[in-house]
């Protein structure tokens, strides 16, 4: 197994086991992450996203992965997350392809690709069915995801300050 395949195996195994600390240890300090829900985020925000998603997913979050491939420079993996979304607790099964670029034994760029309209139908019901293919909904979801991540980071900083 190529060393970069081992990094991806560690990353997804940690995700499966709800261990964001081990996941983000696979990231380069200057990591760049992108997906349809969060858009482009970097560094600490990208790392915090995994903590937030795992915390919010709780015991309902189930992750499977397969087809890990990597060479000296880039790699890919398929993964599926099953979880409950929103106040209505709608079941979402999101099939994702992750692509990666590595530098110095760490993930420098991570892009997750998935069908936003299919996700929206599952997560948002009829509203998602109607608006799932629109740029408006994608932008709205990215704004809400960014706001949730900012709120999460503020809460984490507040906890750290209280502890010191």
UniProtKB/TrEMBL annotation:
Gene3D superfamilies noted in UniProt: 3.10.450.50
Alphabetic keyword roster: Hydrolase
Domain SnoaL-like: 9-110
InterPro entries xref list: NTF2-like_dom_sf, SnoaL-like
MF terms in GO: hydrolase activity
Designated name of the protein: Limonene-1,2-epoxide hydrolase
């Amino acid at each position: 197994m190529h060393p970069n395949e081992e990094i991806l195996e560690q990353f997804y195994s940690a995700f499966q086991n709800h261990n964001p600390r081990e996941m983000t240890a696979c990231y380069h300090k200057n990591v760049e992450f992108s997906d349809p829900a969060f858009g482009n985020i970097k560094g600490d925000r990208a790392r915090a996203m995994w903590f937030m998603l795992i915390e919010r997913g709780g015991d309902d979050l189930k992750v499977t992965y397969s087809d890990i491939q990597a060479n000296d420079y880039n790699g890919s993996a398929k993964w599926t997350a099953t979880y409950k979304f929103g106040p209505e607790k709608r079941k979402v099964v999101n099939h994702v392809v992750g692509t990666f670029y590595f530098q110095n034994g760490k993930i420098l760029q991570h892009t997750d690709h998935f069908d936003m309209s299919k996700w929206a139908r599952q997560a948002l019901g009829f509203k998602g069915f109607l608006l799932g293919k629109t740029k408006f909904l994608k932008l709205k979801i990215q704004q809400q995801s960014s706001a949730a991540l900012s709120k999460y980071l503020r809460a984490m900083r507040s906890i750290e300050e209280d502890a010191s």
